[in-house]
Amino acid sequence: MAKNQLIGLVLLGFDRSSSMIRKSDAALLLQLAEQASLAFQNAALYREQQERLVRLHRADRLAAMGQLAAGVAHEVRNPLTAIRSTMQYLGTTVEGSHRELFEDLIGEVDRIDHIISGLLNLARTGNLQRLPVDLADLTEQTVRFLDHRARKQNAKISAQSSEPIMVEADPNQLRQVFLNLILNALQAMPEGGSIIVDCQIEPDRSRPSQSWAQIRIIDDGPGIPEEVLRNVLDPFFTTKSEGTGL
To answer: Where does the record place the Histidine kinase domain (predicted)?
Structure first.
C-alpha cells in the first residue's frame, strides 16, 4: 500500500507442503513491499509530471504561434494577393519557358498562403458545435470523398462499422481530423496499399453502463519511428520534404 492505495500484490508459493514462512521473514517482506510500492508510485508520478510538462510546453508554443499568426497574417496576405494578381496578368503576356516561370512563382505564393492558413488555424479556437453525429456515416462520407484520390495511386480505402455510432461532437472538426489522418496515410504509401477506417463501440471497463466510440485508421505505410512520435504535434515539425508541420 502507498497513501491508502493498493499498488500491487506479492504472492508467495512453496514447493513443499511442509514449508512455512516465519514471522521475521513476513515482516521483512512487508517492509520491502511498502518501500517498493512507494518507489513505484513515485516513478508513476514522475512520468505523469513529465508528460504534463510536455503538454504545457506544447500548449505555450501553440498559443505563441497563434498570437504571432493573428498579428501578421493580414499584413502579409494583402501584398501576397497583389503579387499573385500581378503574376497572373504578366504570365498571360509571355510564352514558353518564361510563362512556366510565372506559374512556378504563383505556386510559391500559394504555398506561402497555405502556411499562413495553417498558422491561423492554430490561433482560431472557434466555437465547438456539439451536434448528434453518426460516426459510421461520417467516416463513410470521408472515405467516399477520398476514394478517387486513393485509386489514382493504386490505394484502396474501406470503412468498417457494424452499426450506427451516435455521439455528440462537432462534425466539421471531426471530418477535418479524418481527412488529415487519411491523407497522411496516403502520403505514407506512394506505391499503393490499403487503408481501413474501423469504427467500433468499446465497453468502458470502469463504468459498465457506459461505452466508448473507437475509431482506428490502419494503413500499410512504414509507421512513425518512436524517436519521431513525441514531436509529431509540434508546430513546424515534419519529416516530409514538402511539408510545413502545420
So the answer is: 71-246
| Region for residue 72 given its phi and psi (left: phi exceeds 0; alpha: psi -120 to 50; beta: otherwise) | alpha
User: Grid coordinates standing for 193?
Assistant: 496499399
Q: What is the pLDDT of residues 46-100, one digit of tens each?
A: 998 988 888 888 778 777 777 777 777 777 878 888 888 888 888 888 887 788 8
Nearest CA among 195, 132, 190, 135 for reference residue 162: 135
Beta carbons within 10 angstroms of residue 163's beta carbon: 10
CA 181 to chain centre: 8
Work out the pLDDT band at 167, boundaries 50, 70, 90. Answer: very high
- pLDDT by residue (tens digit) across 148-158? 889 988 999 99
What residues are paired with 212 via a beta bridge?
A: 202
